[in-house]
Design goal:
Elements: H1 4-7, E1 12-15, E2 27-28, E3 34-35, E4 55-59, H2 64-73, E5 76-79, H3 84-95, E6 102-106, H4 112-117, E7 120-123, E8 137-138, H5 147-158
Parallel strand pairs: 1-4, 1-6, 4-5, 6-7, 7-8
Antiparallel strand pairs: 2-3
Length: about 170
């Protein structure tokens, strides 16, 4: 469950991609090309908050799909990152944002270091069981099935951002 008082403290939010923006499945064609399923509704409301809170994707995968999706969403993308925590720390330092004001959204063991370092750790409902025993906030929705939208909409609500929806 998302805690609104913690969400209100966010000044930077970083997302894993696979399993957060997607359902963690990959489709491979006969030529070896990979495709993932993303929901357009996950990012629909982001335009209301994106200019107020920096957001990025930090992904271990080296995948053009991740890069292209982030380009379309106008979302800063770091992919092919072997040390996610180091990249998150570098980006936070660049923006001069302290860990207690950073949210990281993840779903698996390779997200654990980031989740433990930030002040606002969030995992998706269907995160791997190995990280579910930690005291992280958990979305009601699964990865690729509304989790990102849930977080974005909560950010909009707690920051009293004016939108054209109720």
């Amino acid at each position: 469950m998302l805690k609104k008082n913690k969400i209100k403290q966010i000044k930077l939010i970083a997302f894993d991609f696979d399993g957060v923006f997607t359902n963690n499945k990959v489709y491979v064609d006969s030529n070896g090309n990979e495709m993932v399923e993303c929901s357009r509704s996950e990012w629909t409301t982001a335009k209301y908050i994106q200019d107020k809170i920096p957001m990025c994707v930090i992904s271990t995968e080296v995948n053009i799909v991740t890069q292209k999706r982030c380009e379309k969403l106008k979302l800063k993308c770091f992919h092919g990152i072997t040390n996610k925590l180091q990249k998150l720390q570098e980006y936070a330092n660049e923006l001069n944002i302290k860990p207690e004001n950073i949210a990281f959204v993840g779903n698996d063991v390779n997200d654990l270091a980031c989740l433990q370092w930030v002040g606002i750790p969030i995992i998706v409902q269907d995160a791997h069981k190995s990280i579910k025993n930690y005291p992280f906030m958990v979305t009601k929705c699964c990865g690729g099935k509304g989790a990102v939208r849930e977080i974005i909409d909560t950010l909009i609500e707690v920051n009293n951002v004016t939108t054209n929806f109720k």
